[in-house]
Amino acid sequence: MEEMGILKYETGGSSPEHHVNQGNPKSMENLTEMLGPKPLIKKHEFVRIIIQCLDSLGYKKSASCLESESGISYKSPEAKLLEMQVLNANWEDSIDILNGIEDLTDETRASALFLVLQQCLLECLSRGDDSSALAILRKRVSPLNVDREKVHNLAVSMLSLKEMGLGKMDDCSIRELRKKSFVELENLLPPPIMLPERRLEHLVETAVTAQMDSCVYHNSFREISLYEDHYCGRDQIPTETVQLQLLNAEALSYYFGIFALVVVSYLNKSRIKLSVTNMKILTEHKNEVWFVQFSHNGEYLASSSRDCAAIIWKVSENAVLILRHRLQSHQNPVSFVAWSPDDTMLLTCGNGEVLKLWDVETGTCKHTFGDDGFIVSSCAWFPDSKRIVCGSSDPEKGIYMWDCDGKEIKAWRGMRMPKVLDLAVTPDGENLISIFSEKEIRILNVGTNAERVISEDYSITSLSVSRDSKFLIVNLNSEEIHMWDVAGKWKKPLKYTGHKQNKYVIRSCFGGFNCTFIASGSENSQVYIWNRRNSVPLEVLSGHLMTVNCVSWNPRRHQMLASASDDHTIRIWGPSQASNTVTT
Q1: What SS3 class is residue 472?
Q2: What does the H/E/C string look like for 133-149?
Q3: Do residues 555 and 298 make contact, with C-beta atoms less than 8 angstroms apart?
Q4: Does the model's pTM come out above 0.90?
Q5: Alpha-carbon distance 509 to 520, whole Å?
């Protein structure tokens, strides 16, 4: 390594005095001045990150002007000097600066020295000075207290570059590499020596996120303004099943056919507005409705009932639901349905009978899985829409994985296999989650076969997984809903209470923007909604006359919720009437 003239550098440490112009009286006042009504903000720190923000946004002149007027420098003396030495390839001086900075941990100092020496080594290789490069590696890099893998990778890179003849670089490439090395140093060295990148943006974003998190009704993608504090009202979530709408001709024709087109045309010519009450109560089932689920694209709703039928409903643009297909092939009540991830197929589980696969477009049955001796308790899809799994309440049957043609791919069964009450596949396809023996949640990693068991104290009646594959919720007959993380980091679940459940299978779901909410049915004929951060219900929705068995939150329309009840109806809940009036 070439000997460079060593710059005698005496660091001032990392005290704030070294970030201000001590010849400017204003700058010395800034050291003790505090801002804000609390006051919690140090003025010199606040100004410094404003200068950084202006600089990063490209307002270089404004940043320079503020530095001059305030006497506060965006970059500390150590940072300025280090940048100059690195960009000019004064490696010994760069090392002296790093060694002279106080309050650095040994780990941080070693990592910073590694970055400088790595750049020096690469430039030696570039100019053909292999012996100096090797000396740096052996005498300067190897003794550093850094991860041995980093040293090994650097040595391997040296050999690879040499063997492939890629060591030489032009001046422009070398300058870019030096800039990159300094940026890495900026990200490594702590404040106040260096400011974290885009610090002001990070602080503002953190404040906005905190406001969103503290807003219990937040349920939309809408942009948040910095001009005012963020707040959402209860009109952001579904709370009503009847709303007044001014319907256009197309929507009205769904109810009254072609005659409506003539009527609406006449009324429009006469400049008369027609309003009808849009009843969001579906009454096509002839017995208890046990299950509802929206499709992944939010354009369909599937329901199943004790009347041995399942129904596919189409969700129109103006949130009117129209019966698309009635699926009648089961001999027993239909207890469960599951949409394929591409929403082209639907599985239906007959209570104590076979599993059927339906074409959503035509409403025809494509395949029947199993036989009369196979008692299906639940089913789920893998993300490719080509594989399904189903569980049986018969321990001898266990869990089967099939393709869409009924070919068995895999099976988990045997004498030690407990009965399966419910199951789900995480949307990312990595985990198969099952409810075994009433009180156990088993999470199986499909790729590694690693298994984890969560034990509950009370019987579990149902299971639901969040769209991001990170969380699951289970309903217990102890009148609690428990939320667990799929990764297994939590020792205890988050708990949600207030609903009624002692005797029947009640199903809950995640919903809303970022799955912020949890909704559940209840034996007292009501629907309960919680914000995930609070165990107490946010809203309790009344309207059903008997037990609410299942709920489903539309994954695309975050203000639409469906509920299924023993009163033979499905209710479609939306936001309050005042916020959803639509004109023709």
Answers
A1: strand
A2: HHHHHHHHHCCCCCCHH
A3: yes
A4: no
A5: 6
